[in-house]
Amino acid sequence: MTNESAIRNSQSAIVIVGAGPAGSSLAIRLAQNGFETTLIEREHFPREKLCGEFISPECLQHFGDLGVLDEMLDAGGDRIRETRFFASGGSSIAVPNDWFETNSFALSLSRSVMDNTLLKRAKQCGVKVIDGCSVTSVEKQNGSVRSISAREHDGTVRELAADLFIDATGRSQALTKLTRSQKERTKPAFVGFKAHLTGADVPQGVCEIYSFDGGYAGLSNVEGDRANLCFLVRSEVVRETGSNASELVDDVIRKNRRASQTLDQWEMAGDWLAVSISSFGVTDPAPFENLFTVGDAAAFIDPFTGSGMLMAVQSSAMLADSITTNATPAGIAASYSSAYSRRFRNRLRVCWALRQIAFMPRLATGVVWTLRMSSASRRYLARMTRRSWTIRHRGNP
Questions:
Q1: Which pTM does this prediction carry?
Q2: Which of 138, 178, 175 is nearest to 40 (CA)?
Q3: Which of 103, 226, 322, 358 could hold 335 in an S-S bridge, CB 3.0 to 4.6 Å?
Q4: Would 159 be classed as within a structural domain?
C-alpha cells in the first residue's frame, strides 16, 4: 500500500491488534462506519487485567455511543461519587466526580467484565474476532506494513493483509515493536500490582488513593462484594524489600495511616497480577506509514489520575474519525497526530507533575493541606488531568 492508496469504507480492510477498551471500541466505531474490521486478541475473554478499574464519568457517554452503556451499568460495579486522596499521615482531599460531568458518577468495574462486554458488542457489529492469537511477525513493503503473521494457541499460523493496522496492545506495543529492526531494552522504573480483595473497609461510592514512600495505591469496590487494590511502586522499593505483593501491602502501603485502617482485615479474592513499567507519556500515535496506535500503546498516563480509560476511548474515537474523514494513510496520520497532541499533550504533563508529588509523602502532605483550603483550586487541578487545555502566555491572544 502507498500514500496514494484510497481508504474507502467497506472496500478497505483494517486489522486491530489488542481487544482491550481501546481496540474494541475502535473496532465497533469502524464497523459501524462500514469498514471491514478484524480484531486480534492474544487471550480468551473473559480474563482479568492489571488495572485500577476506574471508569471516569466522561467514559459513560462513549459507552452510550458504542451501545454498551446499559449493560455496563447493570453489571454490578460500584458507582463512584468521590475520589479521596490520602497523604501518609491521614490528611485528605476530596474530588467529587460531578466536577467532570454534572450529576454524574464514575464506575468501578472489573476489566474482566468491561472488556468482555465491549468485545461481545464488537462481534454484534460485524467485527471479525480472532482470539487466542499472538502476532509474531510483520511483512513490510515500500515503506508500509503489508501483512502480519499471527500464531494461534494450537500452533496454526495466520497471515492477514490489510490497508491499515492498529496497535492496541497497551504498554507492550507488541505490533509496533515488530516493525523495528532492533528491540529497545530499558530498565523498568516501576512495578504495578493488582488484585481483588475481600475484607477491605472502603466505603461504597468512594475511590481512595494512598500516598506512600515510593509509590501510591488505589482502592475501590467492584462487583461481587470485592474491592480492587492496584498500586504502583518504584522498582528499587521492590528490590530493597525483597517482598512479594502481599508483603508490600502490609510493610509499605499500610504505612499510610488511612490504608492501615481500610486494609486491616484484607484477604485475597484472586491472584496477584504484576507488570513492569519503563516510562510514562506519549510514544508515537503514527509510528509507521499505515500503522497507528491507540490507548496505552500511544501514551501511558499516570494511573492515579483516573484518566487512563478515558484516554483509551477518546483516542479510539479520534482515530476512527480520522480514518473516516481522510482518504490516505498520510492524511489519517496528519489528522490523528495533530488531534492527539492537542487533546493529550498538556494533560500528560500535568499528570507527570502530580505523580512526582504522590511518590514523596512529605511533599504530598503539604500539597494536600494547601489544596484543602480551596475547593476552586482542587477543581481546577482535577479538570486539568482530564481535558485539553492551553497556557496563554503574556502578550499572546
A1: 0.88
A2: 175
A3: 322
A4: yes
